[in-house]
User: What shape does this take?
Amino acid sequence: MKNILRLLIEVAKEIREFYYDAISYARYNIVGLRTPDKERLISQILLISHSLEKGMCFINKKSNWGEAKAKNLLCLINKYEHYGRDEYYRLGLNVLYKYLLDKDSSKEKVLVDGIKAITTKYKTLLSPKEYGVRRVGECKAFDKKQIIEFFSTRASVRFYKEENVSTDDIINAYEIAKLTPTACNRQTCKVYVYKDETIKKQILDNQLGDQGWAGKAPVLFVITADLSRFCGTYEHSQALIDGGLFAMNFVWGLHLNHIASCFKMFIREHHLQKRFQQICDIPENEIPIVLVLGGYYKEEQIMCPMSHRFDNQIIFKN
Assistant: This one.
């Protein structure tokens, strides 16, 4: 009877957490009740720009392809101009410019005149080589053995050199992470960097404590993903997927810059998460994905778990 009661209590807790996750997604997705208009516009600009870029990749296109999307994007960046001509505005502007140059794009006069007018007005913001499409092929300029060695030498390290991790090295690691593929190029993820001992302790106390090692790490990173970039029930878990991919590439970037690291699982319980986001000063529309502790490798070698890898998890299907 006691076991059944414990099971029911655990199930009730899980249902409660799923409820809070659903409420958060309903509030902050693209059409969410609490999503700021600026964030909503950014999400739509990203989606339609990427859709038009994908259309430009096809060799055989229908005449006047993408007309409705181009009209929508033109309308969106006209609205977004109120918030300034930042990188999102430049993305929409340049994609429209490249769309206009496509021989199969719409020749509808109102659309063409609209794109010409805005790209002429802000021609200093045009950077055609950075937007639209590019040619790619097999990369042959790498040493396979060295790359395998790079991946095989990373381990979860919990003991670090007592030295401040430089901002330049962190930025260089981020440069690797930002190359991570994302759903429709929405680039939802951010890295929050904490070095202050008081803040780090508050964060760790919220997340099941120091556990005998985390507090000694010179730097603590929190990876987040923005719910306001997603919409629809079929995307309700996409922020977690994008965040996981980004976090792994960020850790590879740390390793490349001689920074040891270890993941610390984020405790996804509503009462803890709410306080966590207050401590970290993270907006409610961003969900924490994982914590990463890091620091430079010690001069001497240290002991780490072997973490044996199994070979039975690749399945070939005809």
User: Anything to note?
Assistant: The mean pLDDT is 95.
